[in-house]
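Researcher: Quick test of sequence recovery. Tokens follow.
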């Protein structure tokens, strides 16, 4: 009896550990120690030398949107871009940003994964690879509907972007 309990406990811990490691490994590779408990934005502490060609994550604004979107923002003016800003994001399963809008159009590039979107109250699912067009000022949110983390690149055509949070992500399962 005791052996069965020990074996079942070990298997449960092994399964939990593997599942945690499954998500922990890509999160660490993306530059985060762990998945945070609450949203935050941290300005870069290391200024980027605009004569460089490689922008390392240590030069970027780092953020987390609860539940499950980790990322970096390259506000174009900080990197000597004239008309470009970029967002690099990783969305955990059932993770995504709150409902928000930008004052300019945006596009998302996803190489693989299944993502549910809401743009201007229209709801749809995209399966990578794809590019999604988001009109200027459109309220939008997305949710990773796959079982593994996905990477999203957001491109905005201005070097000084805006972000207006509207409310919680409407795609969250209640």
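Model:
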């Amino acid at each position: 009896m005791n052996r069965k309990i020990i074996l079942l406990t070990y298997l449960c811990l092994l399964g939990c550990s593997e599942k945690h490691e499954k998500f922990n490994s890509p999160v660490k590779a993306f530059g985060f120690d762990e998945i945070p408990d609450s949203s935050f934005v941290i300005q870069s502490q290391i200024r980027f030398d605009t004569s460089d060609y490689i922008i390392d994550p240590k030069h970027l604004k780092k953020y987390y949107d609860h539940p499950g979107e980790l990322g970096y923002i390259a506000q174009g003016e900080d990197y000597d871009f004239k008309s470009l800003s970029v967002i690099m994001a990783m969305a955990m399963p059932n993770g995504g940003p709150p409902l928000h809008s930008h004052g300019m159009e945006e596009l998302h590039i996803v190489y693989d994964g299944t993502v549910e979107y809401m743009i201007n109250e229209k709801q749809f699912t995209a399966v990578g690879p794809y590019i999604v067009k988001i009109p200027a000022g459109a309220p939008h949110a997305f949710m990773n509907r796959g079982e593994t983390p996905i990477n999203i690149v957001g491109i905005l055509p201005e070097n000084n972007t805006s972000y207006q949070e509207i409310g919680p992500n409407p795609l969250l399962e209640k």
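Residues 1-20 have pLDDT under 50 and may be disordered.
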